[in-house]
Amino acid sequence: MIQIAVTGKPNVGKSSFFNSATSSKVEMADYPFTTIDANKAIAYVTSKCPCRELNLYCNPRNSKCIDGIRLTPIELIDVAGLVPGAHEGRGLGNKFLDELRQAKVFIHIVDASGSTDEEGRPIDTGGHDPLEDIEFLEEEIVMWIYGILKKNWPRLIRKIEAEKLDVSKVIHEQLSGTGIGIGDVVEAKRTLSSIYSKWSDEDIKILIRNLLKIAKPMLIVANKADLPSSQRNIERIKEKYPDVIPASAESELALIRAAENGLIDYNPGDKNFNILKEGELNGNQKKALEYIKVNVLEKYGGTGVQTALNNAIFKLLDLIVVYPVEDQHKFTDNKGNILPDAVLIKNGSTPRDLAYTIHTDIGDKFMHGMDSRRNIRVGSDYQLSNGDIISIITN
Asked: How far apart are CA 71 and CA 60, in angstroms?
């Protein structure tokens, strides 16, 4: 299952984001390092389910469908807050960085209101520049990987030259366990000199920055977007970073809990809510819901939590949702489940890639695919589209 890491300095709302995205109940408090051990839970990305279009009643196995919206599971990991010097072991730095190894994308939660200092301690609202937090976290991750690579770099150069090895393969082996693929290394070093023995320390850092953009892209979530000092900061962040989502994780959490108690009708990602039991709401609850409606939903078009998850998967990782079935006429598996599975797969993938994603044996025996919507055969070179329903034919 695809893993997303929720990162950032302490006390910016990472656990609130995690709880609201996963319906979990990890500890939240207004002080640094509330989270010490990483928390993991299932969250969902949302996309249009084909069931409505095909006038079917689907019964998913690996996912959910609510009112024609398919919820496909991913794993979210909420790690300990990162402080400057983490790559040298400050705070919980080493623990934090080790927990990022298998994440495919980082969601970086920043305090857009500027009400926490560089180590997460509360300060006057607007007293800290959130742009500094973005830059320091990126640098900490770069220095973490740089430390892994630089430690043995002279020895690696001698080995490459003596044994005439491929530099990309050697770098990949050195970074094994970080979730970085050899193809990522090949792509990342294209901008550097081919004379790797003359790479400077800055060249190696450029390589790592390129690697992170390719293998572990980062989405910035400007949390606490409802506070007065946040709007200007969000505008400043967007000037420098294209992938920024304004968010209010606490608002999302409040709406989810109100919905769970039957007080409102609200699903994650909705742009509004309907009050179901106004008589059961006290004055403070009514004020809180009105505040969220005006300062979050109407202002930003949502709380930003579901938008962040969807952007991380569908935009940064460029994945699509495909529905494998066994019976291409009835859109079912071998047990009669209609549209049973939703599979996240790289945009541009083929039916053969889908077959291997399902199971190695199916990939090995792949003959061709059937596009269930059009009831036509598709070959191994056909590029899958988002929402395709594919039956895999094997020998």
From this structure: 10
pTM attached to this predicted model: 0.90
Q: Could you write out the three-class secondary structure of the chain?
A: CCEEEEECCCCCCHHHHHHHHHCCCCCCCCCCCCCCCCEEEEEEEEEECHHHHCCCCCCCCCCEEECCEEEEEEEEEECCCCCCCHHHCCCCHHHHHHCCCCCCEEEEEEECCCCECCCCCECCCCCCCHHHHHHHHHHHHHHHHHHHHHCCHHHHHHHHHHHCCCHHHHHHHHCCCCCCCHHHHHHHHHHCCCCHHHCCHHHHHHHHHHHHHHHCCEEEEEECCCCCCHHHHHHHHHHHCCCEEECCHHHHHHHHHHHHCCCEECCCCCCCCEECCHHHCCHHHHHHHHHHHHHHHHHHCCCCHHHHHHHHHHHHCCEEEEEEECECCCCECCCCCECCCCEEEECCCCHHHHHHHHCHHHHHCEEEEEECCCCEEECCCCCCCCCCEEEEEEC
Nearest Cα residue to 381 out of 344, 349, 354, 347: 349
pLDDT, residue 291, reads 97
Alpha-carbon separation of residue 152 from 38, 89, 180, 370 (angstroms)? 29, 19, 18, 50
Q: What is the pLDDT of residues 300-340, one digit of tens each?
A: 999 999 999 999 999 999 999 999 999 999 999 999 999 99
Q: Which of these CATH numbers, 2.60.40.10, 1.10.8.470, 3.40.109.40, 3.90.226.10, describes 143-215?
A: 1.10.8.470
In the chain, which stretches have pLDDT less than 70? 24-37, 83-99
Block residue for tokens 């709401």: 281
- CA pair distance 321, 250, nearest whole angstrom: 29
Predicted confidence (pLDDT) per residue in 85-99, tens digit: 655 554 444 555 666
Q: Residue 27 and residue 14: Cα distance in Å, rounded?
A: 11
Q: Which fold has domain 3-121+217-313?
A: Rossmann fold (3.40.50)
pLDDT of residue 87: 52
The pLDDT of residue 86: 54
Contact (Cβ atoms closer than 8 angstroms) between residue 334 and residue 268:
no
Residue 6 to residue 138: CA distance in whole angstroms = 14
